[in-house]
Amino acid sequence: MAELTAEAFDAALARGEARLRGPRAESAHYDADRDRVIVCLTTGIELGFPPQAVEGLAGAAATDLAEIEVQAFGLGLHFPRLDADVYVPALLEGVLGSPQWMAQRSPAAVLGATGGQARGGAKAAAARENGKRGGRPKKARA
User: Fold this and answer.
1) First vs last Cα of the chain: how many Å apart?
2) What distance in Å separates the CA atoms of residue 30 and residue 37, rounded to the nearest whole number?
3) Domain count, the chain
């Protein structure tokens, strides 16, 4: 393991202090009427987001979302009934889950999945025409 230098310690301390100067959660609650988790920030701004958009909260029942704890000096939200955590700075940056979770929900992924699920005359006709021409072209060998 690498040894911690004084410079590295000072840099980490400065990053932590800067993080605490930024927006943090003061309180949070679930608004069942609007199906939104509402986070009140230290800046006075209220942020609301649909739980379906966040990894670990998607598919959760309203009763499970009703209990929210603000932790880590306002940097984290903990949902004890789900054993799920949301990092507030990442939430503010639009990061709602792991890279895999985010990739599955990107506009391109959603559009591709929708197109792949399409059924109907146009897709079937295109497949028949492609078949008449010999099907999918063979991949060129390197």
Assistant:
1) 44
2) 4
3) 2
